[in-house]
């Protein structure tokens, strides 16, 4: 269907209507997909050599969390380098980043017709609009001038959204602040509770208030601490991390405040503490609820007077440090129980941030899966890594007591097992590969070569051959690491070593 002036006018009215950016972008791609006969359409923002999905239509829900590095996706790199729209030949040798990511198309995994519209703000690349279809001739009747007009409308909408976001940041953070560093890991998810958290982060980042981050284990408290620091005026200085739970009490004071040579047995030289290292920057005290009471009093003094004293030194050093603390404990209850100082609690909790559990944001599970799938795809050197819809459904039915961290581990473990079961670079995660809810993961051995190894053997010989082939596959997937292989197979490491020796693998 050709692009008509009426359709372009409707798109222009849609993207200038009084909707949120996200709703406006969703309406844009839905309209484009419906009227141009696409099997999939996507609006992407270009950020630090990555294309980040802002809205998609016709694509799997995990695509929303995949940040596509152009160095890993040659078709997207071609769009990024082009100064104009790109029509890819139906027989293009460049893999499409959406191959296998269009639902309900199990027999047609490879996209054939593809157009990429790079979006510019003046001469700066800010994004792309992609159109994909399985029919190789689907876009043949789309005129170049009309497609350019569609790209111009999309670019204008994206440009305005980015400008408004920037103005909002300046308003909340102040003119002297810096925007978040692109090296910061992304906070994936658009659930209302996550949008509220982002607004709270922006609100406090431009101040020097102490921040207390509260949340269950695995919710991403360190990620929130990084976001606060990197959106603050201190972003150009150090963010120093200290895990209070991992500190033996005997060395905790030295870690925090430093010591001078000869201050105690083993102090063979001067050493700066975390406060000195974080001067003019931010000190992130993780698991603050585990800090011994004696050190709590000394930490309170630093917060009150802004000076530290090294162990064995009579002099005080002035420091300018912002404190961000985090805990999975209920510090109010810890105060009542006498395990945490009330005065320190009130000093730290000037601006509390609650990080939601995964149970509070179920709509983010798909994008989070996509984020971890893309990470695993790159780390395992795969061309394609997908997850079956029934496997994704199984993930949605789990209550995730370990939150996002648990999901990350499940996806990465399943990706490793899926690679072991695959004969090529296109890998699919099956439901049985997911170790959740106390169940072990398993990998079906699908290679014809593995089956051929057991033909013509008696049961014991066939069993040994199968075990040897299977262990070798999983060992290869874990890059020769026997401990990781034992975990993937659900075996005791000692038993695995003995079995591997008996099978002649060691």
UniProtKB/TrEMBL annotation:
Keywords: ATP-binding, DNA-binding, Nucleotide-binding, Transcription, Transcription regulation. PROSITE patterns: SIGMA54_INTERACT_1 (PS00675), SIGMA54_INTERACT_2 (PS00676), SIGMA54_INTERACT_3 (PS00688), SIGMA54_INTERACT_4 (PS50045). It comes from Shewanella litorisediminis. The keyword Ribosomal protein does not apply. PANTHER family: ANAEROBIC NITRIC OXIDE REDUCTASE TRANSCRIPTION REGULATOR NORR, TRANSCRIPTIONAL REGULATORY PROTEIN. Residues 187-416 form the Sigma-54 factor interaction domain. This is Nitric oxide reductase transcriptional regulator NorR.
